[in-house]
Design goal:
Strand content: 5-15%
Largest sheet: 12 strands, parallel
Number of helices: 11
Structural class: alpha/beta
Oligomer: single chain
Helix content: 25-40%
Shape: elongated
Length: 325
């Protein structure tokens, strides 16, 4: 059916190319296989193609299907900017083709999502070759749950520090990078060429060239020492952090109530919090110097008592909160 639709769209181009090729195509969870990819590739490479976003999440495309798709991506006619391929049964075998697509002279890709695929370190190393290419325009790169270890730290670091790198968002959640992998990544993060603004990994906040404005640290065992080290970076004049998700709410609230604190968004989703932290949070919301406008407390065991305590702060005239989850 999909092949028939794509063929019909191709035949319609001579009379109504704008209608035949929408800008957005979402085919998530459509039981697609590699058999559809040749047709999709022909759409991408068609002379009058207007497709800029393609979502194929949760389909069994496998490496052979993606290889066909990459043939269309590499053509000069492809206008695709966003490609989402979460949980598509991909492995490192598809990464060389994707890397060539990223480094193609006519590439328009700015967002690539490959989460929940078994790419492993060998696959990411191949992808990083494309990242380093001056033709690569990628800005958002999502690699959550891809079976990565510390072995991907060095190639990613080189990709981030490449002179022509445009990456502003890198997502590496649910991978086993460990401390050694993060240390390798840090070398790229502190490079003046690094444009990264949003990271899900701990890095040195006080680096002179840092562009970091958002940091999420949920689901990690930072412990008190980790938060103490984090706060050292937060207090540095070079720190540009605006949004922080972490543990140790009591310690954080002390800093949030300080007149020098400018944090507006605080994410504490699934951090094992109880009603015991809510009085502190409430006093922070009602502090005269508070700048908080967004507070995320999803998936915590606050119960009714915790929310009752929070409400005291919400009712205070000093509270500037606009969004509460």
């Amino acid at each position: 059916i999909l092949f028939f639709i794509c063929s019909l769209a191709l035949r319609l181009t001579c009379t109504c190319s704008q209608l035949a090729f929408p800008h957005l195509c979402r085919l998530n969870t459509c039981h697609l296989t590699s058999g559809c990819c040749k047709a999709l590739s022909s759409i991408l490479s068609a002379e009058h193609s207007h497709l800029t976003e393609l979502s194929l999440n949760y389909n069994c495309l496998d490496d052979s299907g993606l290889g066909l798709l990459c043939e269309g991506l590499k053509t000069k006619n492809s206008k695709l900017e966003t490609l989402r391929l979460s949980q598509c049964k991909l492995t490192s075998g598809c990464c060389e083709g994707l890397s060539l697509a990223l480094s193609a002279a006519h590439s328009h890709l700015t967002e690539l999502k490959l989460s929940d695929n078994n790419l492993e370190d060998s696959g990411v190393r191949l992808l990083c070759e494309g990242l380093k290419n001056p033709n690569c325009k990628l800005e958002t790169f999502r690699l959550s749950s891809c079976g990565l270890t510390a072995g991907c730290g060095a190639p990613l670091s080189l990709g981030l520090s490449a002179e022509h790198s445009r990456l502003t968002e890198l997502v590496l959640g649910n991978n086993n990078l460990g401390d050694s992998g993060v240390k390798l990544l840090y070398e790229g993060l502190r490079n003046k060429n690094c444009k990264l603004e949003k990271r899900v990994l701990f890095s040195v906040l006080s680096d002179e060239h840092s562009h970091l404005t958002e940091l999420w640290l949920g689901y990690n065992k930072l412990e008190d020492l980790g938060v103490v080290l984090l706060c050292e970076g937060l207090r540095n004049k070079s720190c540009k952090l605006e949004k922080l998700g972490a543990f140790c709410v009591h310690l954080l609230c002390e800093g949030l109530r300080d007149k020098n604190c400018k944090i507006e968004k605080l994410g504490l989703t699934q951090c094992g919090l109880t009603s015991g932290c809510c009085e502190d949070l409430s006093s922070t919301l009602s502090a005269e110097q508070s700048h908080l406008t967004e507070l995320y407390l999803n998936n915590n065991d606050l119960v009714d008592l915790g929310v009752h305590l929070l409400s005291e702060g919400l009712m205070n005239k000093n509270c500037k909160l606009e969004k509460l989850e």
